[in-house]
Hints:
Blueprint: E1 4-6, E2 11-16, E3 19-29, E4 32-40, H1 49-63, E5 67-70, H2 73-81, H3 83-86
Parallel strand pairs: 4-5
Antiparallel strand pairs: 1-2, 2-3, 3-4
Amino acid sequence: xxxxxxxxxxxxxxxxxxxxxxxxxxxxxxxxxxxxxxxxxxxxxxxxxxxxxxxxxxxxxxxxxxxxxxxxxxxxxxxxxxxxxxxxxxx
Length: 91
């Protein structure tokens, strides 16, 4: 299933097998996106859904020429593990 980007609610979401996962963000300025919270229902944990949300959101940030902040500990860890891929868009 696809990941949906809801700009009004400022989140990326997906629903799979009745379980939901979301990655919320804030826009502290026009050129910055701050990923603030990640939630993955227990039924989806360990299946790579969080990583898929992270990659989709970071691809969006790159496409929109946004600088990335990672208030969310999951996102901070993800970016740290994949620093070479995302270093150019970090705030």
